[in-house]
Write a structure and sequence with these properties.
Length: 291
Amino acid sequence: MRNLDVTTLRSFVAVADAGGVTRAAGFLHLTQSAVSMQLKRLEELLGLDLLDRSGRTIALTASGEQLLVYARRMVALNDEVIGRLTDQIYEGEVVLGVPHDIVYPAIPQVLKQFHSAFPRVKVQLVSSYTRSLKAQFAKGDCDLILTTETVLDPGGRTLCRKPLRWIGAPGGCAWRQRPLKLAFGRLCTFRPKVVEALDTAGIPWDVIVETESDRTIEATVSADLAVHTMIEGTEPPHLERIEHGGTLPDLPPQMINLYGPHARKSAVHDALADFLCRIFSGIEAGRLKAG
């Protein structure tokens, strides 16, 4: 097994760009003999002539031209890795706000991808309701937030648009009862739209659970004591979409929106936003499932 040395490849690229060993040595802050020795070691390793030394100036051989393409990429990748892992620009903390009900299944995957790309940047995840997250974002307490809403405010962008679905216990029958028993969060943005749809359809309802705990809602619904609503594709595996056949009213689609800094973003913010865009595009296309 033979391994190419990045330092040697860097010298080779410098000689090709400078058109000679002397100028390349000055660029690399090395002696001319040191650069010449590195080139010789590279040729011996590959068993190839990389430079045509027959003329007054140094030219690349056919093998040298081919190696140059790879050498540039390997040197650039080396510099990118070193810069990403050591540059202070890639240190610090980003505060990401996400509504409770869309943390899964997307956000764990986003955090994993982001950590791989920026291991020295900490992501502080804040999970709350859309209304609270927008208030925190306005005060500067969050760098980026996701929201679930039916409109898009200035400065945001819509990552995906998905239907709002009725959710119940697997094989449950709570959705057949009247008045329809509901479980909702106190600040849930879905609740007014759900109540409006039920009133329009003439279906009596009763909120039997009003809480700030998603676990409380899920426990109540999974016990078949009430129903809930969630964005399609975000329901947990212990709950299921209710196939009501028109017995319950259709609900308005919801937007998952992203809001970021109003000023120029950093590479870190751009990268996190890009990961979020890609993962929620997968949800919209049905490629990402809960569970």
